[in-house]
Design goal:
single chain; 242 residues; alpha+beta; 31% helix; globular
Length: 242
Amino acid sequence: MIVEVFDRLVDQAWPAIHRVNAGGWILRAADGVTKRANSVLPLGEPGDLEAGVEVAEKFYADRGLPCVFSVGGGATPGLDALLHARGYRVVDPTLVMTASLAPEAPGNGVGASWEEVDLAEAPSQAWLDTWWSVDGRFGGDGLTTAARILTAVPATYASLGEEAVGRGVVQGEWFGIYSMAVVPHARRKGHGRKVLRALLTHAREQGTQRAYLVVVESNTVARTLYERHGFTVAGRYHYRVR
């Protein structure tokens, strides 16, 4: 099932530090840093749906975290309705977008040069600081935990100075694009476009055939950028938060 493929690709590219298999559901935790790494991936078929939810609620309560479910196309049937009935609210409806990585036609550069973008196999402190300044929502050791998540799998880190960054993960025929971020004062200057172009060029050089990314549905600026580079909607998911 293609929708379940995306659930698993995202899970693999953004791996939680702590993982427990509970009847096929993966209970993920990472000290509360990012919802994705601190949510249930409910792809299996637990014998008792209500009991499965209660196991998950205890797992997160024991860690002082809210119970969150990532509900995508491959989620256990009936789960979303059950969570709604239990008072879980919908948060961050998100789109999965994909694009072919076939060789580009001459002149189809979408108006962006990318040679000035640096690519590295590990995130520099400047890369981390730039990304965290845009996406960071936690104090204390949040960035340290985030760095553990980011570097848990091989990836490529793109940066345009300290103004824009992105991350790419080769996953077989797929290339996942993550952590696209442009600092506020540098927006609307084409920096995000250059980083995206650099990652897509790198993806083609690695021999991957298709790229995917996830973007919050309400982020129309980012969606427009991705659509201009051939990305179209292939799936959706949202979070249910207790």
